[in-house]
Write a structure and sequence with these properties.
heterodimer, A: mainly alpha, two-stranded antiparallel ribbon, 29 helices, B: mainly alpha, 20 helices, about 70% helix
């Protein structure tokens, strides 16, 4: 019987076909390959939904498809497919947003008369292939492979406008910074293979399961450096986390993401907001069973996440360019997801991943529509009053902004609230690290409310501040359609997991929780296995939940606090910027603003490390190499030349000299022989 | 007799090309080189060797003919292939044909001599990988140097004389050191061997037949021989600190010659290390694993740093080879299946990728007449296809998954990390792996400066698209890199067959 899972490889392979078609035939195709890409992604979306429905029917899939390297008496490396509720959900998210971005690109790229479109659509297709294959990956090495490939696509697409100075530089930075993180990821991957002999994510043969058994004393595994098992697992987990921090743009490897805005805006929406950046967080979720074994690793994840959420939000406060605000907001929001994962909120993290993918893709596409309208000027201070000129964009953007700020009842409210709630109760259960993360996350809520609505008011409200803003360029259906779809989703997607409502009314509404709990017990990826009463979180991480006001009371209090803070930030933005002729109030921050505008000088020290430490070091090595090492080589030849020059003088060509030398030689030989032979 | 047929066809071809008119020499040489190319593919399809040529009994395509009797030893014409040498033979034939085609544009004088020498070089390389008798092997080993010397010295750049002599003298002195080391072993084996067959010597060493020589006990003799051979091959690889001939040779050599130099000649060094040091004297290697691993890590990191400092595209690629060969050494000393297997795979993979990189730089040079990073920018605007291949090749070099470099490197890392032979293996592996960050640094930096940004060219040449004959070989090599990256088992299965007997080796009694 053939079912959805037989077609699962096609979810990834269809965009690969689109890549090949666009690369080699894009020139000759209508819309330069956009239609091929859209068709492929539509196919992927249909297959993903079919897969989702099949998973809803209780079926899952975990199988090797292709033997990459067949080991003889040693590791065999596979490419395989793991379909459980988590990956099925992610497939739908990725293929949906990729499809919408292909459609939007018709408006952003084709209608704007860009050149190099076959290349653009080929690269988008390659990206979709890599990302979907990453999501499908059933083992860590395959995940790493496609993790790297999405990095390549990100590089190519950021540098799409290669004739300018900025994009190639930003592309290089993005690849290098993430490569630095991937180095640790690869060391961790190799370490996991060396420890467990497998990189499988799910099932009885998987490394999270083997690690769990090892800690329970049921089996033993090889550890290195004489570390205990839990300590070694912590080391491995933190190494893999390096890749996560790079790809999901977490502190201190977040610096590439704002620069990545040099790429075309649809690319920012797809890659640098909704999907590729999510790969890091997805990876932690994918191997959550492994991280739950190490409270240290969880603590690090929570702290990195909480700090990044606050840190990035603070920089978003003062940015003047629309896409820059969104870039820092993206970093901040991924911080929340990390905070949730570190804080034991597995469902909350996946929930926020889902809603964020929708509303941030929406905001970027909305920003793209504004940028078309503004003739590619991104500075918000040159905008204003666009609300009446482009109502579809405005209302969609507003919907996304309300979701981002976490205003009831938009999608972001529910997910962010759940992130904070989960962190809070596990923090109160005796984990001060989580409380610190929670505090930072809570403060970031105010900032989020403020920068979001500062952005909305500056862009759409008040009077037009430039001539372009008075007479914006119109956009067509291919821009409006994706905005409308995502605008509606951003408003309502929260219904998939209304945890607070469930607590209050008693009606069962946590569908996402149920969904993620559908994974079969044999996989070990179900929610109850992670955070249930006898789940790993309690057994190994030692997390306990404490609800000081009772469960309902704590939920409501937490929601009220975060909503209140979001409204506070939004209200402040309203006071300051929702006026006909706003001024830059953040100037009052003085030198603090300078610090924020300069991103805490994070870029400077990283550039310094590359340009002023590594490069001079390499030049010094080169000088050393040329002078000392090669010097010795050349000196050897000089010495032999010199010596032979001297020895050559014996070869004078005068026969009497030779006769003398012959006689002398004979005498020496006779004397030596005589001395040793005992003739004397 | 298949291997002999290949060798004869190449040698005959070299003779024919040498007397052909210059105008037709290139096309003729390419056509002739198709014979060994197709022949090597036939060898691949008919390959039935399942063990190591030195340790097993029956290598594929084996021929043994008594040849000369010298000082009590039978010298034999003894050739054969196993899973280590066959991939290298295929690498050689593919790279030779593509290098010949890529020479059509840049080589515009004395073509018949040039192509004849290239074919002679190919014959030497095939002989090195096929020979199973030490004397025969050594003849081919030295034969390779001669055409290479002339190819650099006649068709090279401004400092070609210096580079050619440095290459020749340096590697020849190294051969001498290695030769002394090996012959000491042979004499130390005394009457237990009657031929100079490499399998016989290896098996005699394994059986513990080594007696002392010139006052050295067997242990000391092994140690001394190991050091001599290691030093000799390290020059060829090249390994830091014996590497300084390489950048000079590469910069001065014409592009097609660089392709063969980096693609195949360097692999003679790692191939010989595997065959001699690591197969014949595994106990010495294992006892000094940390020292060898330090050589490996230093080669990787220091080589990569040197590449970062360069301004000449060809020097960048040249230095990066040093770095890549460091991985091979790391894999070998791990003595695990994926370590040694991955190292062998890396030899083949790096052959294709570095050949491709040199060739791409050469195609750009054909158009721009400069290789200096500062002299050009924004080439992507004018040569989109070539630049596209450049980008693909560079990412291949960085170890992008689904290209052969990734498979090779990740196998080496997977093999080296849990090695029980090498104390502190995880640390050495992790240190060497940092090379993957530096390689991305220097290649991305060079690409940003030369390929992207606003178009600018310091030299006064009209920049046009590269001709098809320049681009076609690039496409072929890129296809090989991707094919091996998607399906490493094309070669990796036979490599494992040949490598696994090495892992089981003890020290010899």
């Amino acid at each position: 019987m053939t079912g959805a899972f037989d077609f699962a490889p096609a979810i990834a392979l269809l965009p690969l076909a689109a890549f090949v078609v666009a690369l080699f035939g894009g020139k000759f195709l209508p819309k330069r390959g956009a239609l091929a890409g859209s068709t492929a992604l539509a196919g992927s979306l249909v297959l993903s939904i079919w897969t989702l429905v099949t998973v809803a029917g209780g079926e899952t899939y975990n199988a090797d498809l292709y033997t990459f390297v067949a080991g003889q008496d040693t590791l065999t490396l596979h490419l395989g497919i793991l379909i459980d509720p988590l990956s099925a959900l992610m497939l739908v998210i990725v293929s949906l947003i990729a499809l919408l971005v292909f459609i939007f690109s018709l408006g952003y790229m084709n209608d704007e008369g860009e050149t190099g479109l076959p290349r653009y659509y080929a690269e988008l297709g390659l990206f979709s292939f890599s990302m979907l294959a990453f999501v499908l990956a059933d083992n860590l090495l395959m995940a790493f492979m496609f993790f790297e490939l999405v990095g390549l696509c990100s590089y190519l697409l950021i540098g799409f406008w290669f004739r300018e100075e900025g994009p190639p530089s930003a592309a290089k930075k993005a690849f290098l910074v993430t490569r630095f993180g991937d180095y640790f990821f690869l060391v961790g991957t190799v370490g996991i293979f060396a420890t467990f002999g497998t990189g499988m994510f799910a099932g009885p043969e998987s490394f999270p399961h083997m690690a769990e058994q090892a800690l329970a004393g049921e089996t033993s595994v090889t550890t290195f450096f004489g570390l205990g098992e839990q300590a070694w697992f912590t080391v491995l987990g933190l190494l893999v986390l390096g890749g996560v921090i790079g790809k999901s743009a977490q502190f201190p490897l977040h610096t590439w993401l704002p620069d990545a805005m040099e790429g075309p805006t649809p690319v920012s929406a797809l890659i640098h907001a909704a999907t590729m950046v999510a790969a890091g967080v997805y990876l932690v979720a994918r191997m959550y069973g492994f991280y739950l074994l190490s409270p240290t690793a969880l603590g690090v994840i929570a702290l990195v996440g909480g700090f990044t959420a606050l840190f990035a939000a603070s920089m978003a406060l003062v940015k003047q360019e629309l896409k820059q605000v969104l870039a820092y907001s993206t970093i901040s929001q991924y911080g929340y997801m990390m905070l949730a994962l570190g804080g034991g909120g597995y469902v909350a993290a996946v929930f926020h991943l889902t809603t964020h993918a929708i509303f941030k893709a929406l905001l970027f596409l909305g920003a793209g529509a504004v940028i078309i309208a503004m003739h590619h000027n991104e500075n918000m201070w040159d905008m204003g009053g666009l609300k009446d000129k482009m109502p579809v964009t405005y209302y969609a953007f507003l919907s996304g902004s309300l979701a981002l700020a976490g205003i009831f009842p938009f999608a972001g409210f529910w997910s962010k609230d759940e992130v904070l709630y989960e962190t809070l109760i596990h923090g109160l259960g005796g984990n001060p690290l989580l409380l610190a993360g929670y505090a930072m996350g809570l403060l970031a809520v105010v900032f989020t409310g403020f920068y979001t609505f500062r952005m909305v008011f500056l862009t759409f409200h008040g009077e037009p501040r430039t001539e372009t803003a008075e007479d914006p360029h119109g956009v067509r259906w291919n821009v409006k359609l994706p905005l409308a779809v995502l605008g509606i989703l951003a408003a309502v997607a929260g219904v998939i997991n209304l945890a607070p409502v469930e607590k209050v009314t008693g009606v069962h509404l946590t569908f996402l929780h149920d969904w993620l709990d559908k994974a079969p017990d044999s996989f070990g990826t179900a929610v109850h296995h992670y955070t249930g009463d006898h789940g790993l979180m309690h057994e190994f991480a030692g997390y306990t939940a404490t609800n000081p006001l009772g469960e309902t009371g704590t939920v409501l209090a937490g929601a009220a606090v975060s909503l209140g803070l979001a409204l506070l930030g939004a209200g402040l933005a309203y006071r300051l910027y929702a006026v006909p002729d706003p001024e830059e109030h953040t100037d009052r921050l003085g030198s603090l603003k300078t610090l924020l505008m300069n991103n805490y000088y994070q870029d400077e020290y990283q550039v310094w490390l590359a340009r002023d430490v590594t490069l001079p070091l390499s030049r010094a090595a080169d000088t050393f190499d040329q002078s000392v090492i090669d010097g010795v080589v050349n000196a050897t030849s000089s010495v032999s030349l010199f010596a032979s020059e001297r020895v050559r003088r014996i070869q004078s060509g005068i026969v009497t000299h030779y006769a003398t030398l012959l006689t002398l030689g004979l005498v020496v030989i006779l004397v030596v022989l005589g001395l040793y032979g005992g003739w004397f | 007799m298949l291997l002999e047929a290949l060798l004869v066809s190449v040698l005959l071809g070299a003779g024919i090309v040498a007397v052909a008119p210059n105008r037709y020499a290139g096309k003729l040489a390419a056509a002739i080189s198709l014979v060994p190319l197709l022949g090597s593919f036939y060898l691949w399809s008919a390959f039935d060797g399942a063990s190591n040529a030195l340790l097993g009994t029956n290598p594929a395509f084996e021929t043994t003919i008594e040849w000369i009797s010298l000082a009590g030893y039978q010298l034999q014409w003894h050739v054969g292939l196993d899973g280590v040498s066959l991939p290298l033979v295929i690498l050689t034939t593919i790279l030779t044909t593509t290098a010949i085609v890529s020479a059509w544009t840049p080589i515009d004088e004395r073509q018949s001599q040039f192509y004849a020498l290239v074919l002679l070089l190919e014959a030497g390389l095939l002989g090195v990988f096929g020979a199973l008798d030490f004397f025969l092997w050594f003849v081919f080993w030295e034969v390779v140097l001669v055409p290479m010397y002339f190819l650099i010295a006649i068709w090279g750049g401004p400092r070609r004389k210096y580079a050619a002599i440095k290459f020749f003298v340096y590697t020849n002195v190294a051969s001498l050191v290695m030769f002394i080391g090996f012959i000491a072993l042979v004499f130390g084996l005394g009457d237990s061997i009657t031929t100079l067959g490499l399998p016989e010597i290896t098996q005699a060493l394994q059986a513990g037949e080594l007696t002392g020589l010139a006052g050295l006990g067997p242990g000391a003799l092994k140690g001394a021989a190991f050091i001599a051979m290691f030093a000799g091959f390290a020059v060829k690889v090249p390994m830091v600190p014996f590497h300084t001939w390489l950048p000079d040779a590469h910069v001065e050599a014409p592009t097609p010659v660089s392709v063969l130099l980096a693609g195949v000649l360097l692999k003679m060094g790692t191939y010989a290390l595997l065959r001699f040091n690591f197969t014949m004297l595994p106990d010495v290697a294992k006892a000094n694993a940390e020292i060898i691993a330090i050589f490996a890590v230093v080669s990787v990191i220091y080589g990569a740093l040197l590449a970062l400092a360069q301004r000449d595209l060809k020097r960048i690629v040249a230095y990066s080879s040093i770095s890549s060969m460091g991985y091979v050494l790391l894999g070998l000393i791990a003595y695990t299946a994926h370590g040694v297997g991955g190292a062998t795979f890396q030899m083949v993979s790096h052959g294709f990728i570095s050949g491709l990189m040199f060739m791409t730089v050469g195609v750009i040079y054909n158009q721009t007449h400069t290789r200096m990073v500062g002299d050009m920018s924004g080439l992507a605007d004018r040569m989109p296809v070539t630049v596209g291949i450049f980008v693909a090749a560079a990412f291949g070099y960085m170890g992008l998954p689904l290209m052969s470099g990734f498979a090779a490197e990740v196998l080496i890392f997977l093999g080296a990390f849990p090695s029980t032979v090498l104390p502190g293996a995880p640390i050495f592996t992790a240190l060497a792996m940092f090379g993957i960050v530096i390689v991305a640094g220097y290649l991305l930096l060079a690409m940003q400066r030369t390929l992207f940004g606003p178009f600018d060219l310091e030299t006064d040449y009209e920049l046009g698209r590269a001709p098809v004959q320049d681009v076609a070989p690039l496409v072929v090599l890129l296809a090989c890199v991707i094919a091996l990256g998607v399906a490493p088992d094309l070669f990796y299965g036979m490599i494992q067959d040949a490598v696994s007997p090495i892992l089981a080796l003890g020290g010899g009694a």
